[in-house]
Amino acid sequence: MKSFLNSIQEKVLLYDGSKGVMLQRRGLTGAEASESWNLSNPEEVKNLYNQYQVAGSDVIQTNTFPGNRVTLGKHGLGDKTYQLNFAGVKLAKEITGDSTYVAASVGPTGELLEPSGTLNFDHAYNIFTEPLKAIEDAGADLVNFETFADLNELRAAILAAKETTNLPIIASVTFNANSRTLFGNSAEVCAIVCQSLGVAVVGANCSGGPDSLIEPIKKMHSVVSIPLCVKANAGMPELVKGQVIYRQKPQQFSLYTKEFVENGVRLIGGCCGTTPEFIVEIKKALAELETPELTLKLNPTITSAYNHLVLSPDKNYSVKKLSQEDVTTLINGNFSSLVQECKSEQLDYLLLDFGTINATFDVWSFASKFGLLIKKPVMIKSESPEMLHKFLRYYPGKAGVVLSDNSPLSLSQIQHYGALIVNAALKPNFKDL
Length: 433
Prior knowledge:
The chain is an alpha/beta fold. It contains 18 helices and 18 strands.
């Protein structure tokens, strides 16, 4: 079997459908964690995997969502995090053998990152490393981070996978009706940031029916060159007599397949409410389509957590330049003046000069607060390698880094965090505001 990375470059691969709804039909109760069945009812889980393989899935996703110590702890299963994730992958491998790829599903922690909540970036990172170790040990072919609504939590998950495993990464986000996440991250920003971090596939899942994901997929396709993934729900869920009902039919669901494929999707399946019957219908639709070539989009881009800016050497930009003294004011918590200035439609981006400031303060708190309050993209300069390293690690966007000949970080270190490298000798034309 070819590697997943080679296969998805060549053709559209067929994913599978939901696990929770199918297991509920087999007796899973609302009080149970679906992952618990990997140990308590393994034959039922294997049977479900097999149904999707028979339906035609090229990729089987494991019954491990969300499967981390925080969510499992709410069911008294936190100490079984490794075992439940390991078993979820092993059961899939027993069914698929070498004929079908196994993607391990990893969801968000269920907690809010600071400053919106109490979870910090490093703690989130550590939470993700536990299931990641288990799924790699069990032989997963790739990891699928899915249903993330906070881009910075997704960044923590991606970095955990990059730095602790060798697994190819799918990063999938859930969006509201305006093609933004619950935390306001645009579809374009999510795609750009994930691609810059080196994921193999980026995309969208859950949210609503396939009609709700057409627009975010189009926005993602407009800014990235990597394959896209989509897994929609079987329409919006309805509560009928205490039961959650999904009314969309497989044939209706599959009608969107052509438009998804035309907009860069190379991995397609279903999320909540979908069944093997949905996969059969998507397979029929795919059989009638040719796979379009992926188009390269090489425009240099920077983003905040909310907005992106495509840079051009032929354009003059309106830039707010913040000196070391100005940055010190921000570090001390005074953001009000800058927040007001950033509301100007004329301002394109900010240039932060950390100068000789060292990372002797809480860089995570500063970067997360900055990322939450400042909507404009940023470029940064610093003479401190630790300062550069920490800001790039924690900043919830894709920053630009202005390099000088004596840059404190190597190019590979900067690229590890997906930053755009700008040579100081190629200064853009600044128009001060």
